[in-house]
Amino acid sequence: MTLQLVPVLVLLGIPRSLGLWTLDKLVVKDGSSVTIPCHYHQMYREHVKYWCRGKLWHTCVRVRDSPGRISITDSPAEQVVTLTLSNLQSRQTGRYWCAIKIGGLMRVDVRTSLELLVTKDALDLWVSNSTVSGTEGGNVSIECFYSDKLKDTEKKWCRSGNMLSCQSEYGTVQSQNAQVHLSDDAHGCFTVTLVRLQREDAGWYSCMAAGIQAPVHLTVPAAHHTPNCTVFPELMTSLPGSAASVNASAPPTPSARTKPLPSDKPQTSAPVASAEPQTKSSVISPEPRTSSPRKAGSPERQTVHPSVASNVTNSLHVWLAVLLTGGILLTAALLVALVWRWRMQHSQTPTIEERTESTEHTMQDDVDLMDYEWTSNSVLELDEEPSTTELL
Length: 392
What we know:
Among the domains are: 18-121, Immunoglobulin-like (Sandwich); 124-222, Immunoglobulin-like (Sandwich), CATH 2.60.40.10. It is of the alpha+beta class and 392 residues long. A five-stranded mixed sheet has the order 2-9-8-4-5, with no helix packed on it. It has a five-stranded antiparallel sheet with strand order 10-12-17-16-15, with no helix packed on it. A five-stranded mixed sheet has the order 11-19-18-13-14. The longest helix is centred in the C-terminal third of the chain and has 86 residues, at 306-391. It has five helices and 19 strands.
């Protein structure tokens, strides 16, 4: 019975946004622009994504592209769909839903939501630039500004969609491949420095304080390496018109010839014999440096993005937690049922005993009644015998 109910509890307990995640709360300035990322699992790459606005999911209105005002972009390579709102107004404040169309009968679309607040007041948390670019192997710094209201609040730097990756301003930690240095000047500026960037560090991040988030998109293009050119003197001497060949054809100066050669014939043949293996080695030596091409039909190596691996790990943790919770609830329910049944059995036992006693009492009364009737009849007969004798 327990094993049969576990799938039901799993389906009821797992949220629909398990493979979809975005920010929690975003506060922006009136008249500004903002880009909101929404990450999804790789199994949803081919599905249709959309955004809608409304307090409740069942009453939200779908958000559509509008040139110069609203833009929705899906990037399957990064597994993220973004909503860009330009020239924001206070009336656009509300809850926005990021959803993936599943399709099929009785199948609800996957969705998640965030709260967007457009205000004319000063912001409590913001970044100087929401789009930052760094070079592979280099460093990049991001400045997060905060108001006096958040002066004593803990500031964090998080990778978007992975709350386990959040890092506070205390100490230096490792983020993906780059090292992260966090510092707070206590005067309204929180600086994040990423050292020795790698391609895997590209993606969406956010500065966070008191539940407020400021998104930042980091791009890390591949570094362009200039190949080192190796000059082979033997090849230079063989090229016509080169300075080396001109110098070689000129007669040697007396200072350059330290030893007189025995004859001219060995002098001519020796350079040719020595130049031939050198030329051959100079041509063949670059060959091992070239990498062999990939064979046709061989499987291409695929890499998994670290954020996807961490999100899959989080999903597994959620599944395990739900299964464990379901098992505990079922065990408790079985114990309650056993206790209730035991109490019902014990409550019925006195009733059976009372019925047995009442039945025994009834039978005893009948026996006594029969004895009483027999005794009464005997007395009457004894009383009647003397009267008969007297009459005789």
